[in-house]
Amino acid sequence: MIKIGFIGLGTMGSPMAANLLRKGFPVTVFNRTPGKAAELTGLGAASAATPAEVTRDADLVITMISNDNAIQEVYYGDNGILGAVKPGTVVMDSSTISPSLAKQLAEDAASKQAKFLDAPVTGSKPAAESGTLVFMIGGDEAVVDKIKEPLLAMGRNIIYMGPSGSGATAKLAHNTIVGINIAAFVEGLAIATSGGIDPSAFLELVNSGGAASKMAELKTPKLLGRDFSVQFSLELMLKDLRLSSVLSDSLKTPTPMLEAAKSLFQMGESKGLGELDVSALGQCYEEWIGKQLNGPKL
What positions carry a catalytic annotation? Predict the structure, then answer.
């Protein structure tokens, strides 16, 4: 059976690694912040002290890390992945990173006779926990075929996007839609709330009509219950929108809606909402209209 190394045990990484363990894969884990491996070692994972230690004996190394700077540290730093990777190893990053970094990682892995896939996911925390993520993958399609079994232990679908960098590009385009969708959803709810419409009735309408979306489905109970615990954080959404803005500039693609959504999420971050769920963007609108989006006045 494929030996797996898993690096990055946050909101998404920990349940992904847990699903691999439940399917019987041998998994060695590492997290930059100590203490996050305890639950997984209880499920049978081995724990490593460095990314290099994770990598040396693995057939497949998966990283799920927050941003480009953290990826640089884990791959290129002292005791990093690329200093320890052996020929034939598949290294797969499921974070949301810039396409340019994904292409560089593929080149540098190839220089070690290893294979790199940029394989971000969609589905957020609930899908990570239930093993129903969707992988969008850039790189060598033949390599993707070789690791389908562990991928399907964590997800329900694998979509091949093209050569290196294609997975990262697809994820930024996808999350641009998600960010705009969330902003539109919250703004529509603010209009209804300001106009005296019962929020629960309005959101029933949204989820039953042409405005229905996966985000509306996920965020309706969070907004009505004022539960801003993280499924996907506001600060990570803003990070992705910033990356998408840089990408669209490089592609000379006009993105006025992306820029508007990015500005709204920047306002949310400036209010200290970054570590809350993306639905906390609604708190900006609550301040502007003087009402909570679940009905009561502030």
Answer: 171
